[in-house]
Structures are given as C-alpha cells and as structure tokens.
What we know:
- This protein has helices spanning 2-9, 34-37, 50-54, 137-146, 178-190, 207-218, 314-331, 337-346, 367-372, and strands at residues 76-81, 121-123, 163-168, 195-198, 222-226, 246-251, 269-272, 276-279, 301-302, 308-311, 379-391, 394-405, 408-417, 435-444, 453-462, 467-475.
- It contains 9 helices and 16 strands.
Amino acid sequence: MRIVSLAAAVCCFALPALAHGPGGKHAGAPPKDPLYVGEGTWGQDYPDQWALRRVGFDDTRSSAWSKIGAKSEHTIVAIIDTGLDWNHADIAWDSLWNNPGETPNNGVDDDGNGYVDDIMGWNFVDGNNKPWDHDGHGTFVAGVIGAAWNNGAGVAGVDPNARLMVLKALNTFGNTRASLVAQAIIYAADNGAKVINLSVGGEGNTEVEQRAMDYAREKGVLVVIASGNEGRPMSEWSYGDAENAVIVAASDFNDRRTIFSNWGPEVDIAAPGLDVLSLRARYTDTMRGIPGVEYEGGAAYVGDDKRYYRASGTSFAAPIVTGAASLIFSTQPKLSAAEVRRMLLHSAKDIGAAGVDQYTGYGLLDAKAALGAAPDFFIDAHIDGVEVVQGAGGPAVRVLGVANASDFARARIELGAGKDPKQWSAPIADITLPATNGVIAEIPASAFAGSASWVLRLTTTHANGRTREARYQLDLE
Length: 477
C-alpha cells in the first residue's frame, strides 16, 4: 500500500531543467563519501567499496578518476532493469537523464517518439512514464554507475557525471519478456544513450532481442551485459552471441572468476562481483527469496538508515564496467563504441589462465589503463589450433591463430613439456612480422621429442613493451 501511495504522489513529478553540455562538476580528486572512505562497516576486513578500488577507482593521486577533466561531457547511460528509487538520498536529480524534447506532464508526446511524457525514461512493464523500482535490483545497479559524490551520505558511483536513463523492463519479481527488453534497447538507442547496461538474462537468446542489439550497434551504442550467475556456458544463456557488446564476468577478492559466473569464449572482461556495495531502494530486500540462496532478511542492509545494500553477482560487476565506459566517453565524446570497447578490453589486467580465456576474457578491468589508452591500441595473442604439415626441412607443426598489435614489435613461441611447465624453450626465432592470416609459425616436429604432452606459449609484444600471452595444450598421439 505504501508503494501505491508513492506512485500516486509522484504522478505529476517533473525533473528540473538540466544542462547536458560540458562541465562535469566532479573532476580529478577522489570522492570523500563515508561509505567510500570507510572500511569494516559490516564487520568485514576490507574497504566498504573494495570493488571500485580494486579496478583503479582508488583514493590515490593516480586514481582512474584523475582522468576526469572539468570539461568532461555528461554521458547518457541507459539502465535496463527494474527501475529506480528516484528519491534515494544518493541519487542526485541532476544525474537523471532529462528528455529535452518532452514537456513534462502535459499528456502529449511532444517529441513524437511514441512515448507520452517520457521525461526520464519509461516503464515498459506497465506502459507509463513511472519507472519506479519495487524490487531493488535496478536502484543497486544505478548506484554503482552514478551514485552522488560528496553529499555527506553513503557511497560513490563510478561516474557521478553520467546521466541515467531509467528504462524499467523487469517487474517487481525481476521477470520480463524478451519483447520488453528489445523495446527498451531500441528506446535507448533512439534517445541518445551512449552506453546501455543490461544486467538481465535468461535461457537462450531470441531473435527480437538480437535485432534490437544489432540496431543499437548500428546506432553507435556500447552495450554492457552481465554474463549471468548460473555457473554455466554462455552458449546456454542470453546474449551469448551479442556481437561487439561487452560481456562481463564476476571476479572475487583474489581476482579469480567467481564460481557462479557464467563462462565461455563469449566472455570479454571481468570486474569484481562479490560483496559489492550500492543503494537500497525503499521497501526492498533484493536478495530475499532468490531460489537456492541462503539469506536472512535484512542481512544485506548497510548504514544506520538501512538505505545501502551489499550483494554479489555478475549483475553488479557489469555496471562497474559500464561506469568506466561512461567515463571514457565523457573524456573523449567523439570516440566510437568499438573504440571504447577496444580500450576497455586491451587494457585489462590478465588474470586466471594466461591470455584471453573463457572465464575472464581479456582479464580484470583496469580503469586507469583504460582511461589512458589510445583508441587504436590493441595486442592480440590467440592460438586457435595446430596442424601437421610437410615443411621445408621435414614434418612440422603449424601453429594457427593471431599474433598482432597496433604497433607490433615481435612475437615469440615457446614450448614447455608436460601439463604445467616450469621451463620453456624457444624452438624457432622470434617472429618479426604480425601474423594476421591465421598462420603464426611452423615448428619442426623434432622439437617435440621427449614428451607426449606440451604447452605452446605465444607472447605478443607491443612497441611500448606491453605484452599479451596465450597458451595451448598439445597432446601427441
């Protein structure tokens, strides 16, 4: 009944006129919000917002936030989720997207986009302009991306200069239909979003969603997607074939993939997904009632006013990457979505198995490196397979894959005997030209004498000294 009353009270709510030009008010210095600078608030032995600090949003002078300039743009970020508690103390009204073509509450579709009075987004579940959150998931995601800074309360968002476009496509129970998600994606693309956060998933993918994703890509929008929390291959889950999106896995306190994070070659990057701290929507307890999750009601509340919440999941790793993408766009607004994606992935810190792997993709988000990366910078090292051929000097093993970089210096192939080599040898000279046609090199068969099992290690080196590594297990019959 209280929720109904809240909705009735805000039926005529209008945002104040907002400026969307340059001039981000948060530049350079890290935030001082109490739950950002705090540690041990709920008895833990790590910073309250450890997840942001782990990827470079720390309180040092070289923080990723030091890249924010006074002239940074306000990036429009669409959050397709369960809505937003717009009245939360840590959501500044000027952080909400304001539809410049709509006159609030006049009952007219002023901008002709098919939605009446869509001043801050849309509720696709109920078909109205009240995208309020009665589940809590969307408010949590929004807080990770854009919670207010230095307001004397709570947490700090990754990009407080972002403009949050609130698109409610999931109901109070976190359920939805593919058609609603697709409509929200198209709305975001048509109304100026540069980044879409999609912490939504389900069994398989649908044609309508894929078409919407393709449409967003054609409009130059970067879509960031949570990999999902079932510990299953991405091929069995939504958006596994979302071309040119950024699919985010969840990492733990030791920079390893969490056991629940979905995996597969579709995974692009990882970000912290355990005990992430953000906002709690009023009257919600998001973790309560999730099948298979042992949880005591209220256990995740944080703060004297209980308006903050901690939770785990790829849903909360994805918005950290979304916030980083938003910051990159804010500092370089003319970049394409493909360039921002490249900056995020190719600057990531390699974790887990060496090289690009199916659990963490290119590695852990490194926001400092991403914000300082050149848009055309990349390093590729992939071994896709091997084949036996007749070389100039006799039988040889041809290594298939890619060894390339935006400013290629060299590549090296090394061999190590066994499943977990401690010693490596280079059977051929360093490769001095990029390998981009699918063939990296040929290794004489004689180099594989003495063991039935080998690991091939490929290292690509950029002219600036940065490297990327790939490994391939080879078992000889």
